[in-house]
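**User:** My hope is that you can spare some time for a protein that puzzles me. I have put the entry right below:
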Amino acid sequence: MIKTIIKTISLGKEYKYWMLLAVLLGFLTIGSGIGLMMTSAYLISKAALQTPIYQLQVAIVGVRFFGISRGVLRYSERLVSHNVTFKLLTNLRVWFFRALVSIVPSKTTDLSSGDLLTRSIEDIENLEHIFVRVISPPFIFLSISVLMFYLLNLFSLNYALLFLILFYLSAIGIPFVTYLMSNKLGRKIVLLKSRLKELSIDTLQGFSELAFYNQYGSQVNQFDILHKELVSSETKMSNIQSLHETLTGLMMNVTVILLLITAIPDVTNKILDGVFLSVISIGIMAAFEAVVSIPQAFQYLSKSSESAKRLFDVTNQEIKHSEIPTKDLSLIDTNLIFSNISFSYQKDAVALKDVSFKIKQGNKTAIVGASGAGKSTIVNLITKLWEYDSGDIYLGNINYRNINEINLRNLISVVPQKVHLFTGTIKENLLIAKPNATGNDLIEALTKVDLSEFVNNLPEKLNTNIGELGKKLSGGESKRLSIARALLQNNPILIFDEVTSHVDNITEQNILNSIANFSDEKTVLFITHRLNKMEMFDNILVLQDGRLIAQGNHKELLKTSDYYLKLISAGNSIG
């Protein structure tokens, strides 16, 4: 647990001096409170004895000073500590999302979108307490204990030692009790919130299916059970917090009473001026402000450590990026070579086995086969979303393992099987590919996919909102918009992964015609299980059960591959 907390704090190590400043201001704030209460107690006690006003001037100035400084210091401490907290949260969010870039598309995680949402929002927000409520309070407490030991030692070493024992007993004993009570509870609350978010997203996304199968009621009941359990757990956590506040108040009073029992005989024996009884008592009460936050630190420790652990469980899977320090990829040829590539999702689930082929620069290549043959796996390997198990892939004469993913993806545009359009306008979705594109660039890309007329007939044209996930567009319009987005990027390699699936025959023909008209300067890789217009491709790779069983152009394969003939005969029914 401690290692997890330290690792989390290390993500904001550039703010260490700001953290130290926040701790110092926290110490000075409570110290000013102690000074205010002790000088006020002294002033009131001395004034009650009808002490001449000139003898009270120092105390009066002290009350004014500590009163003003406490307010200023409290504001400054809040300003600095919250600024540090927000900066830490910023670092955590950027760090986590940067890790997700390589993790989410890969085969390394089985997390649902609901769980990822919880981790990226709820768990990171749980860590906002890690500095203000977990790290800072113990350091402030230690500083205050030193200050009070010094002040009480001015009166008597016995007072200082007795206070120190009870002060540390309060700061260790009470948190230990509340920690034992809240440790499992804090973890449970984090997990329950995560499960509720997962269930909420699943319910919203699958509402139609739940309605069709008449299971909406059972889903609601499950949600209700989890929600009641969460409310019950949070109520218990709130009760524990109330308990430690009560115990802290009790220990404060016990400390004051024991100090009075020890000090009153000294007053009787004229060793101690009776005025200082109130000074000591009020000072101790003010010092216990540093104790109140210690049990809270332990209470938040379990939630923060569990949330941090859940984040590290994801980021520890982060895929390491390779680098090319000197090569400029834009200057090399874009021949893609697969040499004896094998890949498996698990040891017993082989997706590709000893696959070798070459995609020549400027050629249009199709990869065909039934669903599950390994076609989309090849796309994920080419784009470096996944790492192959054995063999080698080359871009030109450079081994893929030595190519940085970001540099590679500046050469490749992909139209995926499952098109994702973002909530917003047509223009905003296109600009994802090329943020500095002009209006003419956008229209030109839309024209190439026969969408320009459709867009121009819309009331708001490019500024038309397409709704969440592009729901206001048809399936064919969404596919063609995604192709326009890929063309706008103007990369030398274009990959189309099952772009003609789930579209009507007319839309399919339009898409194929658009691809056929692409310049020979583009290297095109077309993944499909619907074998239409195969004669437009320079080379066709035929996959079956993860193996490359034939390759050649359309006419050659019709003569040499019975399996290819079978695919042609099956037509659009495959998959």
Observations:
- DSSP finds 19 helices and ten strands in the chain.
- The chain has a mean pLDDT of 80.
